[in-house]
Amino acid sequence: SQFLALIFSTLSLSFLHSLSLFFFFSLLLVFSVTDLELFRQELRPVIILYHPKWVSLCYQKQLLAFCSWFCCIALASLQQAVVTMNNFQQYRHIASPGWRLGWTWAKKEVIWSMMGGQTTEQGDCSKFKAGIPHCCKKDPTVVDLLPGTPYNQQIANCCKGGVLGSWVQDPTNAVSSFQVSVGRAGTTNKTVKVPKNFTLSAPGPGYTCGPAKIVKPTQFIQADKRRVTQALMTWNVTCQYSQFLAQKTPSCCVSLSSFYNDTIVPCPTCACGCQGNSSLSGSCVNSQTPHLASVVSGSGKNNLSPLVQCTSHMCPVRIHWHVKVNYKEYWRVKVTITNFNYRMNYSEWNMVVQHPNFDNLTQLFSFNYKSLTPYGSINDTAMLWGVKFYNDFLSQAGPNGNVQSELLFRKDKATFTFDKGWAFPRRIYFNGDNCVMPPPDAYPWLPNAGSRQEVSLFALVIAYLVALVFYAHA
């Protein structure tokens, strides 16, 4: 009987190979960027891994019909899914502590095992006696594994700590993947149901995900290129970012200055909140506070909320644009980025600047540069970011919390002028967020433009009343 049981179990496992199917689950982070060339990530076929406890259970208890049938049914409904996240945003990346992806199962699915990622909670798995699944929650949340994970727990494009690079700045690291083994999922494209209620945190709010859309099944080309296999199902999910959902107040501001005027135009007052209004500004620390390090480390448990230096603008980041030198055929600008946030180090930061003279940018010092052309032939937008291992890391608030560079522009006689604030940027983004600009009438003006005539409203009213009195007595 033991010999027959072994043969029957072996036949059942052979029959299992013909029943086992897998599907590919692709998650795309797609954003509205003009003239963006999309790409499809090529993945190798996934081989189904059978649960060892089920197989050993069949051999040990030697239950012919019941045990073999249980193995076949349980393993045949075990599906492999590979989730691939592509960041198609040109200048917005996901920094540490990384992304968190969640969804809600359509039926009673469970996750038996994972590679390249893990769920944050296991959930209630008390119903399972033979083997304990990786996660039994109806709404699991998955995070990426950290660098240095053992190779037998990795897959391609995993284990980056949840960090996703932007499409322009670091396209090779703009992809992240993990693999899940799902039980109770079904065996055909009719019984496998698409999950719903997808959520993406990066690491806080801001992203809104749409419903999953079933697309053409992904095909895999074998190594010899003579055979093509196909996944059971493929569906895509699109998540979009909104700065208004991510934070109640702006996260950066811009200040201006020039060589031809002694006036330094600061960031607008209360640009990112006010010190007296805790609901808008959060908390701030005076840079002259004694024992500053202990105050910063012991203030609050949520490291995602900013703890900024007390300023008039209360912004975590300030970008200063200084028109430095005027040459005969060129002019030079110095850009300084200062971090006022004591809780945040900005790794792989980037900045997008809109200015009409970027079509004649001649030289850039200590920053990387790429032209962005959202309007076709108009080249007035540039993306700037730090040099790897030199200044791509913006430290937290303090003496080292700044990076700077200089830009050299060639003059275009048809458009160049220092008059009416032309030399200052039209708009600036930091890490994809729009920064608050000073009002145009506050820009530094040329000395020969004449002094500004400031007339108070009270003087105008008095003059008007005097004119009426004289008119009445005339």
From TrEMBL:
UniProt entry keywords in alphabetical sequence: Glycoprotein, GPI-anchor, Lipoprotein, Membrane, Signal, Transmembrane, Transmembrane helix
Entry keyword annotation includes Transmembrane: yes
Topological relation to the membrane, as annotated: Lipid-anchor; GPI-anchor
Main location: membrane
Subcellular locations according to the entry: Cell membrane
TM region positions: 6-31, 63-82, 455-472
Pfam family, one: COB_C
Boundaries of every COBRA C-terminal domain copy: 251-444
GO CC annotations on file: plasma membrane; side of membrane
GO biological process: cellulose microfibril organization; plant-type cell wall cellulose biosynthetic process
Family: Belongs to the COBRA family.
Name by which UniProt lists this protein: COBRA C-terminal domain-containing protein
Organism whose genome encodes this protein: Phaseolus vulgaris
Taxonomic lineage from the root: Eukaryota, Viridiplantae, Streptophyta, Embryophyta, Tracheophyta
